[in-house]
Amino acid sequence: MPYKEIEKRREMSRKREKVRYHERYSRDDSSLIRFHSRNLLRLAVACGRVVRPDVCSICGGKGARIEGHHVDYLKPLEVVWLCSECHGKERGKGRV
User: Is residue 67 within 8 Å of residue 45, measured between CB atoms?
Assistant: First the structure.
């Protein structure tokens, strides 16, 4: 396959991914707020501004993957650190 054809396919693929990204995150304002809150927290943890603990805030479990749970997405750096199991239970509380 010629080089130009490969580059053309890559460019088309990039455009499709960009469209998918925008479709996913531009549905409504709440999706955008959640996306930005998660991104700010990820960057804060990466640069050391926020420290991810080793234990879950609810069960005290060690060794499991610890995830940040946003109670309020308008406060992106205020999270409760939970293990995957407790995080799933916590997210399910708001659903009926």
Answer: no
